[in-house]
Design goal:
Low-confidence stretches: 1-13, 235-243
Distance between the termini: 72 Å
Mean pLDDT: 86
Subcellular location: Endomembrane system
GO molecular function: ATP binding; ATP hydrolysis activity; P-type ion transporter activity
Largest sheet: 11 strands, mixed
Helix content: 40-55%
Strand content: 15-25%
CATH class of the largest domain: Mainly Alpha
Oligomer: single chain
Shape: elongated
Bound molecules: adenosine-5'-triphosphate
Number of helices: 31
CATH superfamily of the largest domain: Calcium-transporting ATPase, transmembrane domain
Number of domains: 5
Number of strands: 28
Pfam families: Cation_ATPase, Cation_ATPase_C, Cation_ATPase_N, E1-E2_ATPase, Hydrolase_3
Membrane topology: Multi-pass membrane protein
GO cellular component, one term: membrane
CATH topology of the largest domain: Calcium-transporting ATPase, transmembrane domain
CATH architecture of the largest domain: Up-down Bundle
């Protein structure tokens, strides 16, 4: 087999230029039969060509990542200070500074690596699938398993999984922007083109990474992985994008402003200390460096990223795959969730329950896909073959159908559209197997189902060679095509359109999904079945009512959303009455009217804004209605999450604050446009993701609420000492030590904080609300002051009692560290008490972080080497009690403040 990759390396005369070859010749060259490749051959070629995957985007090398850690204003200050101290011969300080720099960089390096690993794992979950013909059977496989010579089927919404020579194409239009930059879709067919045709003009080819926006096709894989055009120009498949979020940017900016302010403050302190108070400049210099090091929240951006990444990981475990990080924040602020109905709110396990035809209403027994059950009329069992009209309708349902019904290990399942699967089960219940029907009535053409036109049509020939056209679709669409209906004996009679409409409304009002079935004799006017052939002249056969019960967990999730102040709206392609009935079962839009797409089309934007305020169920809605609905809601100040699955849903998903695509039935186009993909297509997953989103946002806030006062406390101790001419309670080296031990380590535990109990009982966060509210400032100041008071107070008290300076300083250091440990526990909840079992032990990472700090403090206090280095001294049991007392004081004061807030309700 010639290696198509040879083209890459310049090519020779006998290397196939696939776009110039007729399809059959390409097939012959790649030795592929009508059955596709068999498993053994596919495996052999896979070993030869490697998986159909592009090399992952290159991560920054570990060394680069490490070096980048030093690119940080604080570390520049500290490195500068290390140089100055070395020049002055203060080797001890130089060592501490360098150690602090290294530890800071190492922590940042590890945290960033963790965040990247987390996101990397999630990226892999989004790998695309492909429908391939292997050994005569269509199978869905991971696209990485495709090999040259495979025959794959693609349909609208799919991403082309490899470079394909098209074998058959039906109305295929492909958007090739990823390759050519041209965003207008191009028409594809199977024709060969000239050798020098540019990529965009090679109509017989479909290239990996481009998107099918319309139609269906089958194609022969001619190149995979790095050998594809996409691989050649080295464009990366879109994975998780921009790794920053509005909040992260806000924090980054805040951190920088704060750093500059602190440096200014440090300079002022230096001037004050040396010029006014007459401290020796070298000592003051070290002090202000330590001050800056302790006050600048250098770990902030790194820990924020880790918190977000951990949130994303938790969501992924709960089936919500976040593609863009800002979605995590937006999820926490969502005020409206707009959901599809079928498969998201409902189970998507369809069973035909009722068939209305020839003036009779047949009930159908059985549930699920197992073909057990029969037909009954008014409670009496009837064989389907005694009713010609019913038998004909069932046959149309089975033939105008692209699904497959399979039995494996006693279990029946459907491959393809569950609505169509239900018709296959109906066929079996009537004694008609799909294979037999297809053999007797071979199919010659098809117009596949699309939500825009809401029908599917096929062209068949019967045993006598007579052509037939079948159609199935939304009843109003099908009725529009009919001029007659079939009578009980199978004979045509005039169409009683009002009667059919009444039946449709009655059936839909019971929450059943509706399909109309019709047929006509005749062949398509042209070579192929076209829309013009489906414009009229059909005979109405039957109305089919299908149950698709709501998911039990969706009922609960809708309730949760309501409690969380989030409105749930259902936007469905289904009949208005069906939508209302299912909505009522889910508590969506109860007692309110349903509005249809047709009505939306008649409204101007102002009217639509009023409507979205009052209405929760939108039926017979198409993707363009979804887009207008999102806009109307956003214009009314809502933060909108919107689900979608089809290629045409992409604009609405992009526009929504959180676009949510279905992982199972969603097209690649929808997934690409979405911020989040639901691995299980389940509405309950959205509610869980909102809960996680709120929790992540909370954790970010908790971390800041922890970090700022602890940094501030240390800084205040030093500033107060300088201002009031006191002996410095902390040496520069000690300040750096505290910073090393506590700053990024303790706070990180808050990234693991589970959602607070009331997180779904609160109203959504106003999107414009500032992160650092007035309450924030208050709490930061309060806790910083408390910490300063404890540490400084203890130090001064000890000195006044004649305690040795080294001991007093060791007390002061330990008091701050222990107060931080205690305050870490306070920080677990904003307002809720932590003086209970859950509060004290609910996050084991908090306990672990504290436990990790204890030996470090003991080493600092007792190890002779550390004592020599930091000027610390051993403490007695009584002194430890005082330290603990200081920590407990901060803890209780912080709990008291929460109690006052809870009682008075000052902070809403
Ligand atoms: P949702 O938008 O909530 O997922 P939906 O699946 O009902 O709802 P569509 O798939 O757009 O929305 O279906 C709209 C209507 O088209 C259905 O109510 C049904 O009458 C008809 N229909 C659905 N699937 C098919 C199909 N495979 N062939 C023919 N008609 C169909």
């Amino acid at each position: 087999m010639p290696d198509p990759r040879a083209r890459e390396t310049g090519g020779t005369a006998d290397v196939p230029l696939w776009h110039t070859l007729p399809a059959e010749q390409a097939q012959a060259l790649l030795r592929t039969g009508v059955q596709g490749l068999d498993a053994a051959e596919a495996a052999r070629r896979l070993a030869q060509h490697g998986p159909n995957r592009l090399a992952p985007p290159r991560r920054r090398s570990a060394l680069m990542r490490l070096l980048l850690q030093f690119h940080n204003i604080l570390l520049y200050v500290m490195l500068g200070a290390a140089v100055v101290t070395a020049a002055l011969g203060h080797w001890l300080d130089t060592t501490v500074l360098l150690a602090a720099v290294l530890i800071n960089a190492a922590i940042g390096f590890i945290q960033e690596g963790k965040a990247e690993d987390a996101l990397e794992g999630i990226r892999a979950m989004l790998s695309p699938h492909a429908m391939v013909l292997r050994g005569g059977e269509r199978r869905e496989i991971d696209a990485a398993g495709l090999v040259p010579g495979d025959v794959v089927a693609v349909a609208s919404g799919d991403r082309i999984p490899a470079d394909l020579r098209l074998l058959a194409a039906h109305e295929l239009r492909v958007e090739e922007a990823a390759l050519t930059g041209e965003s207008m879709p191009v028409e594809k067919d199977t024709a060969a083109v000239a050798a020098d045709a540019p990529l965009g003009d090679r109509s017989g080819m479909a290239y990996a990474g481009t998107l099918v926006v319309h139609g269906q096709a089958t194609g022969l894989v001619v190149a995979t992985g790095g050998a594809t055009e996409l691989g050649r120009i080295n464009r990366m498949l879109a994975g998780i994008e921009a790794q920053t979020t509005p909040l992260l940017r806000q924090i980054d900016r805040f951190g920088r402003v704060l750093a500059v302010a602190i440096l200014a403050l440090a300079a002022a302190t230096f001037a004050l200390g040396t010029l006014w108070r007459g401290h020796p400049p070298a000592e003051m210099f070290m002090m202000v460096v330590a001050l800056a090091a302790s006050a600048i929240p250098e770990g902030l951006p790194a820990i924020m990223t880790v918190t977000l990444a951990l949130g994303v990981q938790r969501m992924a475990r709960r089936q919500a795959i976040v593609r863009r990080l800002p979605a995590v924040e937006a999820l926490g602020a969502v005020t409206v969730v707009c959901s599809d109905k079928t498969g998201t709110l409902t189970r998507n396990e369809m069973t035909v329950q009722r068939v209305v035809c020839s003036g009779q209403v047949f009930d159908v027994g059985g549930v699920g896909y197992s073909p057990v059950g029969g037909f009954s009329l008014d409670g009496r069992a009837v064989p389907a073959d005694r009713h010609p009209a019913l038998a004909l309708a069932v046959q149309v349902g089975v033939l105008c159908n692209d699904a497959r019904l399979r039995e494996a290990a006693g279990q029946w399942h459907v491959e393809g559209d569950p609505t169509e699967g239900a018709l296959l089960v109906l066929g079996r219940k009537a004694g008609l197997a799909q294979g037999d029907a297809q053999a007797r009535w071979p199919r010659c053409g098809v117009i596949p189902f699309e939500s825009e036109h809401r029908f599917m049509a096929t062209h068949h020939v019967d045993a006598g060679g007579q052509p037939w056209l079948f159609v199935k679709g939304a009843p109003e669409r099908v009725l529009d095509l009919c001029h007659a209906e079939v009578g009980p004996g199978g004979e045509p009679q005039p169409l009683e359109i009002d009667t059919w409409r009444r039946w449709a409304t009655d059936t839909a009002a019971q929450g059943l999904r509706l399909l109309g079935l019709a047929c006509k004799r005749g062949a398509p006017a042209g070579e192929r079945l076209a829309f013009a052939d489906v414009e009229g002249g059909y005979t109405m056969l039957a109305l089919v009512g299908i149950v698709d019960p709501p998911r039990a967990e969706a009922v609960q999730a809708v309730r949760q959303c309501h409690q969380a102040g989030i409105r749930v709206k259902m936007i469905t392609g289904d009949h208005a009455e069906t939508a209302r009935a299912i909505g009522a079962q889910l508590a969506i839009g109860v007692g309110r009217p349903a509005v249809t797409g047709a009505e939306i089309a008649l409204m101007d934007d102002a009217a639509l804004r009023r409507t979205v305020h009052d209405v929760d169920v939108f039926a017979r809605a198409s993707p363009e209605h979804k887009l207008r609905l999102v806009q109307a809601m956003q214009d009314s100040g809502h933060v909108v999450a919107m689900t979608g699955d089809g290629v045409n849903d992409a604009p609405a998903l992009k526009r929504a604050d959180v676009g949510v695509a279905m992982g199972l039935k969603g097209t690649e186009a929808a997934k690409e446009a979405a911020d989040m993909v639901l691995a299980d297509d389940n509405f309950a997953t959205i509610a869980r993701a909102v809960r996680e989103g709120r929790a992540v946002y909370d954790n970010l806030k908790k971390f800041i609420l922890f970090m700022l006062p602890t940094n501030g406390g240390e800084a205040l101790v030093v500033i107060a000492a300088i201002l009031f001419e006191l002996t410095l309670p902390l040496t520069a080296a000690q300040v750096l030590w505290i910073n090393m031990v506590t700053s990024s380590t303790l706070g990180l535990a808050l990234a693991f904080e589970p959602p607070e109990g009331d997180v779904m009982q609160r109203r959504p966060r106003p999107p414009a609300a500032a992160l650092l509210s007035g309450f924030f400032v208050w709490r930061v100041l309060m806790v910083a002051t408390l910490m300063m008071a404890c540490s400084l107070g203890l130090f001064l008290w000890e000195l006044s009692q004649g305690t040795d300076l080294a001991v007093a300083r060791t007390l002061a250091v330990n008091a701050i560290v222990v107060a931080e440990m205690f305050y870490l526990v306070n920080s677990r909840h904003f307002f809720a008490p932590v003086l209970n079992r859950q509060g004290l032990t609910g996050n084991r990472y908090v306990l672990l972080a504290i436990a990790a700090c204890v030996p470090l403090q003991l080493a600092f206090t007792y190890l002779p080497a550390m004592q020599a280095f930091f000027g610390s001294a051993g403490l007695s049991a009584l002194e430890w009690l005082k330290v603990l007392g200081a920590g407990l004081f901060v803890f209780l004061a912080a709990e008291l403040e929460k109690l006052v807030i809870r009682r008075t309700g000052i902070v809403a």
